[in-house]
Specification:
Elements: E1 6-18, E2 23-35, E3 39-43, H1 50-57, E4 65-70, E5 73-74, H2 80-87, E6 90-93, H3 105-109, H4 111-115, H5 120-133, H6 149-161, E7 167-171, H7 179-196, E8 199-204, H8 207-213, E9 216-221, E10 224-230, H9 231-236, H10 241-247, H11 257-262, E11 272-280, H12 288-296, E12 301-310, E13 313-323, H13 329-344, E14 348-355
Parallel strand pairs: 3-8, 3-9, 6-7, 7-8
Antiparallel strand pairs: 1-2, 1-4, 4-5, 9-10, 11-13, 11-14, 12-13
Helix pairs in contact: 5-6, 6-7
Length: 358
């Protein structure tokens, strides 16, 4: 990818923590690129290096090696003055709201402006504008103890934006919010992204957050990037086992108990294959199940299904069974042909296992 129009470019970032008893490699050669104006997600299980990666971007961590470019300027090679100028355009929203309890909403939002030496008039005007932008026009004089979790998070976001930042970093920022409030905050971030053109990088362990607003997603595991790409591609056709685990709850619900209890990894004679099919875009309008039955001459039993969305795109998911005797060579070949048929029609397919005839 060319180094133009990028908000962030990371190249081979390495971080190792050393103590008397152990050496911990936290980030192992992480490289990624975030275009200006994107909403970019970083996801992974706990302890995979997600927050450490974010702390590299806001200057709280310094890598052992590698390069960090923010708006095409090197953060690691910059002088102290240049570094401060680069980071002045980077705002961070942390997992905890970190509001000052003795300050009102407007006074909390004003903190970065005060540190920057803005005049009293400038602070009043800017704080009021930002409060309105995040939906807090009626809460100017309220104190943190009088706010809900969602309102507190809005204050934290407003405070991060107060210095006219062009890059907003969000670290597990929805973990303390209920699902309804989480959707409200994600909608707010989308609105800020569209209205201000601000680049947003969010770190989370929740794939539903990624599917709601992110253009691209990076999957971390044990300090390494294991998958990266457009959100639709990663979620609908995951390649790595960690990504499979993270996305599994977004699609078809759990198998019926009676099916789950008999599911096995290797087939016995006359077993049925259990497949998860994920439909998106034009694939949802194709009579694929009927075409499979007609083309291959086998019945298909639908066990369960559901629908969901990735940003504005709706997708559907089905779990089906196929009566294929995979203990025979022609059975294996038939299953492979059916899998290829689904993929040719742009339907993501995963073999969940095998069960005896229903």
């Amino acid at each position: 990818m060319a180094f133009t129009n990028l908000a962030i470019a990371l190249s081979d970032i390495q971080i190792t923590y050393r103590s008397d008893h152990e050496i911990l490699n936290v980030l192992k050669g992480v490289s990624l690129f975030v275009p200006q104006g994107e909403i970019f997600g970083v996801i992974g299980r706990s302890g995979t290096g997600k927050s450490t990666l974010l702390r590299c971007l806001n200057g709280l961590e310094t890598p052992d090696s590698g390069e960090i470019l923010i708006h095409n300027k090197s953060l690691l090679k910059a002088t102290h003055q240049e570094r401060c100028k680069i980071l002045s355009k980077v705002g961070t929203v942390f997992q905890e709201f970190n509001l000052l309890s003795r300050r009102t909403v407007l006074q909390n939002i004003a903190l970065p402006l005060e540190f920057a030496g803005a005049s009293a008039d400038e602070i009043t005007v800017k704080s009021t504008e930002i409060a309105a932008l995040v939906g807090l026009s009626d809460k100017h004089s309220a104190y943190p103890s009088q706010l809900s979790g969602g309102q507190s998070q809005r204050v934290a976001i407003a405070r991060a934006l107060a210095s006219n930042v062009s890059l907003l970093l969000c670290d597990e920022f929805t973990s303390s919010l209920d699902p309804e409030t989480t959707i409200e905050i994600l909608s707010l971030l989308q609105d800020l992204n569209r209205r201000l053109g601000i680049t947003i990088v969010l770190v989370t362990h929740d794939m539903s957050v990624i599917s709601e607003i992110c253009n691209h997603v990076c999957v971390l595991d044990s300090g390494k990037v294991v998958e990266i790409g457009p959100t639709e591609t990663i979620l609908l056709n995951p390649q790595h086992k960690v990504t499979h685990s993270l996305v599994s709850h977004l699609f078809a619900k759990d198998l019926p108990r009676v099916i789950h209890e008999t599911l096995r990894n290797l087939p016995l004679e006359n077993d049925h294959a259990v497949l998860r099919l994920t439909f998106s875009s034009n694939a949802t309008f194709q009579p694929t199940i009927a075409a499979i039955i007609q083309t291959f001459g086998i019945p298909i039993n639908i066990l369960t299904g559901n629908t969901g969305h990735i940003r504005e795109m709706t997708f559907g998911s089905l779990i089906v069974t196929l009566p294929i005797n995979t203990t025979l060579n022609n059975g294996h070949a038939l299953l492979e042909d059916i899998l290829a048929y689904f993929q040719m029609r742009h339907i993501a397919v995963e073999v969940l296992g095998f069960i005896p005839p229903l």
